Amino acid sequence: MTRYQTIPVSLNVTDNNRALVVGGGKIALQKIEWLKKFNMQVRVVAMTVVPPVDELAQRGEIRLSLKPYDGLEDGIAMVIAATGDQTVNQRVYRDAVSKGIPVNVVDVPKLCTFFVPSVVSRGRLQMTIASNGDAPALCRRLRRELEALVPPFYEHYVDLLADARTRVRQAVADESTRASILKHLSSERVATQLASQPAMQRAAWFENEITHQLSLAPKKMSPPGTVYLVGAGPGDTGLITIKGLRVLASADAVLFDGLVNAALLNSISPAIERYDTSKRAGCALRTQDDINALMVALALDGKTVCRLKGGDPCVFGRITQEARRLVEHGIPFEIVPGVSSAIGALAYAGIPITDRDSASYFQVVTGHEAPEKTESRMNWKDIAGSKGTVVFLMGVHRLRDIASKLIENGKPDDTPIAIISHGTLPTQTVFETTLATAMDPELQIPEMPRPALIVVGDVVRLRKELTWFGQ
Ligand SMILES: C[S@@+](CC[C@H](N)C(=O)[O-])C[C@H]1O[C@@H](n2cnc3c(N)ncnc32)[C@H](O)[C@@H]1O
Question: Most exposed residue of 284, 399, 451, 459, measured as fewest CB within 10 angstroms of its CB?
Answer without folding.
Answer: 284
